[in-house]
Input
Amino acid sequence: MKQMKNKLIAGAALASLAFGLVACGDDSSSSALAAGDDTELSSSSNDDASSSSVKAESSSSVAKEESSSSAEEVSSSSAEDVVTAVVFGSDYKTGELRWVINGKKLSEKSIAFIQDSKVIANGSDLYVLERMGADNITKLNPKELEEKVEKAVVWQIPLDDGANPTDVAFSGENAWVALQNADSLVRISTKDGKISKSIKTTDFAYEGETSPYVADIELNDGKLYVLMQRYMLDPATWATTYPKGLLAIYDASTGDLKDTVQLLKKNPTAMTFFDGSLYVASQGEYNAAYGTDADEERGIEKVNLAEKKSELIVSGKTLGGGIYAFAAEHGIAYAAIYKSYGDVPLAKIDLAAKTASTVEGIADAEGSLAVKGGVVYVGDRSSGAEKVFVVKDGKASAVETVEGALAPYSITLL
Output
């Protein structure tokens, strides 16, 4: 039984790598398909988590006891040292959390998490989503990372086996979490992680699937926007069928479904709001060589939410391929353009002008993107030269790495 579970976990991890299931959304402050009026709303407690607790202990070095988050002040190793970014590294077998000090150097210290994890910052708080095989959410205090390391954990909650948390959107003292393989959205408290509401998304799944495969969620003007890839995966051959992506819109307070919008392109990866409009980035289908083509079947579409229509404003032909990862701030977007495995340059896009240019010096931007205050952090997974870059004023400079650090996989800025 254990061997079977390990095979399933390995298969899920392979699918995540092969088909871009890791949502790489905006880390900055980020005809209709009817679902029916009887979309299930239910409360989930997760109080009984004996099996999940064992699972979580085996997948992470983080202590499961609720660590103290008292008002005790913690002095940093140096008054000048500031954690500016957090980097999760992975070799697809093991994973580790490290942090960037003063925007210049990767930390010597690290915390172990499962190899498929995502880091997300919310103000001065840090969250780690451990995905398939661990299924946990961990909150940490990033100001305590350098001195306390694992003891910087504020809380950790185990989710149901196979829940696969993929993204988080924050609203005051609450947060919505997309559980990709549990085909649901759950609302949690940022104080203690307790779940207060659950929404099933099964009705949006494509033919024969149970999950609509949520890629990104964003909160805007009291509404929760949920971006769905809705692909169908053949477990025997790994062949994937991609319908056009779908956007579902919920009331962020009640969880009630408000509307859906059919998107233009397939395999959407992330979205951002700018100047009253929603912009969705898509990777599109893979070609026979397992790359993406420079054509009109992918790119960035601008969604008119009032009319439930969208138009392609920057195509894959302009970009050189499909968008694997996407982050934006104030109308300036950065995209990892997936041409083929290992050939993933970084593009800078002006959403208003609908223009794009290449940022020199980055070869494989599959290791995540994050932007804040005009500064971009990029994970370059180039074989033998894995490192984190900081892009400022159009120039990329490498963060000083440490021996043994794993290739960047997810990045968030503080």
About this structure: Residues 11 and 171 are 34 Å apart (CA to CA). Residues 1-59, 63-77 have pLDDT under 50 and may be disordered. The first strand starts at residue 41 and ends at 42. DSSP finds four helices and 32 strands in the chain.
